[in-house]
Amino acid sequence: MPDVFDTGLRPEELDPERPQPFDTPWGSFSLFHVAGEWRAWQSFCPHMQAPLFGGSTCDEAVTCPWHQWRYSLATGAFLGAPEGDDATERGRLARADVRLGPRGTLELVFVEPPRNVRGGFRDGGLS
Ligand code: FES
Question: Is 74 touching ligand 1 by the criterion CB < 6 Å?
């Protein structure tokens, strides 16, 4: 299984205001424009698999559109849930590195075995 996934898109072809999901060999990852750079995090929420690319982003964090749990787009860490929510299954966002490939397109580079990544992934976990 390849460790690099070419998005086929140049940075200027992406809208920094709209996270872009991609189906990679390791599951779905989305490019988020954070602090002036592109970062790739798992596309679906560790809680109940809502599309995080449809959430809102602010201050290097994404808020899930379904139950408003927040995750860091700097570290992938869980940041908080609305008061009263049981967040024991909070999880952590899996990431991929992002680099500019030889064709001038953004490439995602496999970093760690993701958990809770919908769409199948390398180690045969969730699918
Ligand atoms: S599905 Fe994301 S917080 Fe519930």
Answer: no
pLDDT over 70 percentage in the chain:
87
Query: pTM, whole model, 2 decimals?
Result: 0.87
Give nearest CA residue, ligand 1 atom 1: 48
Q: Assess whether pLDDT exceeds 80 at residue 5.
A: yes
Is there an atom of ligand 1 within 6 Å of 92 CB? no
The CATH number of whichever domain residue 11 belongs to comes to: 2.102.10.10
Residue 105 is which amino acid? Answer: T
What residue type is assigned to position 42 of the chain? Answer: Q
Find the 70 Cα to ligand 1 centroid distance in Å.
9
The 10 Å Cβ neighbour count of residue 55 is 21
Domain extent for 59: 4-110
Inside any domain, residue 45: yes
For tokens 């602010």, what's the residue? 58
Is residue 89 pLDDT above 90, yes or no?
Answer: no
For residue 32, is it within any domain? yes
